[in-house]
Amino acid sequence: MSTRWMRPVFVFVSLVLATTTMSKIGFADSPFVVETVTLSPEEDGQFGAIALDAFGNPSLSYCDWYSTDELRYARRAGGTWSTEVVPNTMYTGWTSLALTGAGEPRISYTYNDATWHRLQYAKRSGGVWSISSVPGEGGIGSSLALSGDGSPRVSYIGFDEALTYSKWSGAQWLTEVVDDSLGVWSYRTSLALDSLDNPHICYFD
User: Fold this and answer.
1) What is each CA distance from 1 to 4, 43, 47, 55, 116, in whole angstroms?
2) Strands (E), 78-182
3) Rounded to two decimals, what is the model's pTM?
4) Angle at 43 between CA 74 and CA 137, to 5 degrees
5) Per-residue pLDDT tens digits for 157-187
6) ∠62-125-198 over CA atoms, to 5°?
7) Is residue 97 within 8 Å of 133, Cβ to Cβ?
8) What are residue 40's phi and psi, to 5 degrees?
9) 117-125 vs 92-99, strand pairing mode
10) Residue 96: HSE in the Cβ half-sphere, 13 Å Cα cutoff
11) I need a surface site. Which of 15, 22, 121, 124 has the fewest CB within 10 A?
């Protein structure tokens, strides 16, 4: 008897996200026709996130968790999917994806080092990826949003299960604790910015 891992499948019908036992990461358009995104049967698609560009083309961030642990980025254009490995990313998890007005990807994700989870931020500009670390320990369940000027804002579960919010000032990451009394099962956050770039965060307490 064979065992099949749970794999996320992204379904775009009224922005519904579903999970099934497919062996690959997929994206579905109405009427639920699933497209294969991964290019190799060894790949999987854990901790996936989705974003649409200005033309409605989908992009995905995910972790090839059971194979190489690398962070990956996939994009569909002209009906064809392409995927790429974000360089220098290992032991990753919990991705969140946002796109700039020009369609450039920005990804927050968890880096699992030998002692604790840490929050990382990857961005691609002109085809070149760069990575920065958000200071401090923790970094589970991040949610990424871009401000009006395109700078990243991230909510996540930080050190000692505290809800944490960080933003890039243009020179450094500025971090504040929002709620330090979360339960041990708080693993995910969701962030939105209003027209004045004020953060609004949904989380489990």
Assistant:
1) 10, 21, 27, 44, 36
2) 80-85, 92-99, 105-112, 117-125, 128-133, 138-146, 152-158, 163-168, 173-179
3) 0.82
4) 75
5) 887 788 999 999 999 999 999 988 876 666 7
6) 75
7) no
8) -130, 140
9) unpaired
10) 23
11) 15
Residue with tokens 């962030």, as numbered in its chain: 191
Contacts of 189-194 spanning 24+ positions with Cβ under 8 A: 189/141, 189/142, 189/143, 189/155, 189/156, 189/157, 189/163, 190/143, 190/155, 191/143, 191/144, 191/145, 191/153, 191/154, 191/155, 191/165, 192/145, 193/145, 193/146, 193/147, 193/153
Instruction: Give 63's DSSP letter.
Output: E
Burial of 178 (0-12, 13-18, 19+ CB in 10 A): middle
Collapsing DSSP to helix, strand or coil, 88 comes out as coil
**pLDDT digits 0-9 by tens, 9-44:** 444 332 223 334 444 556 655 556 677 676 565 566
CA gap 14, 3 in Å, rounded: 32
DSSP 160: G
Count of all residues that appear for the chain in the document: 205
Strands 173-179 vs 189-193: parallel, antiparallel or unpaired:
unpaired
What CA–CA distance (Å, rounded) separates 39 from 99?
23
